[in-house]
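does this look right to u?? nicotinamide-adenine-dinucleotide version
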Amino acid sequence: MREELLSNPVFSMAVAQFDRVADFLELEPGIRERCKWPKRIITVTVPIRRDDGHTEVFFGHRVQHHLTRGPVKGGLRYHPSVEVGEVAALAMWMNWKCALMDLPYGGGKGGIACDPGKMSIGELERITRRYTMEMIPFIGPEIDVMAPDMGTNEQTMAWITDTYSTHHGHLVPSIVTGKPLTLQGSAGRTQATGHGVAFLASGALVKLGIESKDATAIVQGFGNVGMYAAATLSSYGVKIIGISDVSGALWNSDGIDIKKLRSFAEKHRTIEGFSGAAAIDPAEMLIRECDILAPCAVGHVITGTNAASIKCKILAEGANGPTTPEADLIIEQRDDIFVIPDILCNAGGVTVSYFEWVQNLQRFQWTEREVITKLETKLHTAFEQVVGFAKRNKIPHRMAAQAIAIKTVADAKTASGLFP
Ligand code: NAD
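got this back:
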């Protein structure tokens, strides 16, 4: 299994990052091994009846990186390329994100190798319910709490809740997060990640002595994360001069009206054709001058090719893995960009997922204001920790964030001891 995992390039990348930080922390070899490998890897077959009457068997996975600090927490994705090594890497990264935010969780991730775009709503419901049944011995509010990810959504979470609850004979809302509000989802969850990106970017502006009203931002992506990041930055007085989505990029040096763009995008399902800004080349947009550059779309967009040319003061990583390792080295050497690494920058989502779980366990609903206030407190604490740790140890913010997270897990494992 060790070799199988390591033959996956994404898992090897996660391990390379882990090893670098473990060397820096001088982790004792036994603890190092325990922190590196996943606690449980579960693979199940998921047979379902397709709409045309034939039976098809899919493969589903769930990786629970560790349970030392509480249940594992992480998304469930439906995508044809889902593969156990990648799921294990994503579980390890979730583990770091939860530890950095001091959430009482280990990291988890799951997925089914299927193409949700080619499945009917009935087929999606059947695959979700069957996967949940197969997972019942391994999940629970105190063991493993799933959430939406690529190809899944609040409807998927509603079906999981219903299947799990039916099995137990009563409603168990704390089995997943990212549920619809009518099934005890949390106020504030939809905007949490984008709000967090903007909140942390404004914290970085303060560190650099730049006032929000004098600042400019470029945001890549106008989906859940990008739209709320742009809207919140705009509400702080930051001028959004560039925005892109998969259809192209928009530019207006006087500032783009985000409310109008949002209404336009809701109507047309794209930002293409919006009259309040000029169309520009999306690749060029990333290297134009601005105070905040917030990649909030896909991974691997700041690369070895464009990293030397970007002209932002703050890089706020809303997406997962937007900066490649080669780009990271270039940015480290430049030393003129304040990086807010992804595991911190987009942690607003998992933090409000945690709040949803807490509310479900308490059978008590918080207001949106309460949720956002608590979110900002947690983000502020983690941000100051990362910046302080990086400064004291003269290391980049990304490495500082990973080091705080891995040390938190290592300390918990050391304190619990090794079961004889
Ligand atoms: P989404 O599907 O709602 O939106 C993605 C946006 O990116 C869309 O506007 C799409 O048009 C745009 N896009 C796609 N390819 C593009 C490209 N090549 N150039 C420019 N724009 C492009 O997704 P989301 O939920 O906003 O997630 C965005 C990123 O944030 C992903 O990396 C995701 O893993 C990460 N993330 C999301 C959350 C969350 O709570 N939604 C939490 C943590 C991390």
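The chain has 15 helices and twelve strands. idk if thats expected tbh
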